[in-house]
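Course assignment 3, question 2. Fill in each field.
Student: A.L.
Task: Predict the tertiary structure for the chain below.
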Amino acid sequence: MFINKHFDVKGLLRFTGGHIIWLTAWATLVVALFEFFHWEWLHIPWLPLSVIGTAVAFYVGFKNNSSYDRLWEARKIWGAIVNESRSWGASVKAFVNNKSVEGVSQDEVNLIHKKLIYRHIGWLYALRSQLLIPTPWEHINQNRFVKRATEKRRKRYGVNLFNDGVTEEELEEFLPPDELQRLIEYKNTATQIIDQQSQDLAELRSKNLINDFTHVELQKLLQLFYTHQGKAERIKKFPLPRQYGASSFIFVAIFIFLLPLGMVSEFHKLGEMGAWLSIPFTVLVGWVYLMMELIGDYSENPFEGLGNDIPMHSLCRVIEIDLRQMLGETEVPPPIQSKNGVLM
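Answer field:
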């Protein structure tokens, strides 16, 4: 998540500087052919070009709206996870007790509280890790130039999925060793962690450490966690339909290709050097369309490990701190800090 109010010039150039180079080269080539080689046929009327530009703008706007919906839905999912995780911690502490059973000390009850709450924290980090596994349509799996740029951005923002031991270390802290070895073998570890929570609730009910009502209430919270996990996995595993995403890129490319052909003749009317003035305006207009396309393209995958991501690591740490303090712990890890203007 980008946290700075504005993007500086350096950041914009880092994101689109390479595109500005080829935009300038293409606009300059068209003007040079028009002026030096007198290829006056190398132009198109402005009216059809403006119609194309308007149509492309509407289409790119539709794509950006769809991308924003995916991004905002992902944020709402994790917001719900934050709230209900706090409810889980408070409910476990309040409902699991030894009032209806003899022979169970308060220390043993406290250990049960810790086990259920720690396992939930482990679920958070497992879910985060699973949502960061790259899919075929994400930028890390595109051509070598896009892949290289994506790897640099991940490193710059503090996320390197090719060498990320954070999740493994967290799971080792929050899950018992024998349980960790068993659960981590599953393809969907997060799903199995919640299932283990459900099995433990059933065991607590059999020992009368919770009653029927509290058993049902705690189970409802687990069902909500499954629901939120499923919603997040839907966004992760089902891309913005490629017939929309890919077409947007093609339309922008066609418009940018035609843009200097329409600009050069219009600016040539201004005088002898007028055609050369079309270059900066062509670059500017092309850059605006390109930025709209790139913003939508990078926003449609909110679990990609890039700057537009939902700050899952930060949210996991927020929940971890809250839950551990509910247990009465005073030594808790610090909140995740932003890196280069991005909070992950």
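Instructor remarks: The two ends are 6 Å apart (CA to CA). Residues 9-326 form one domain.
Grade: pending
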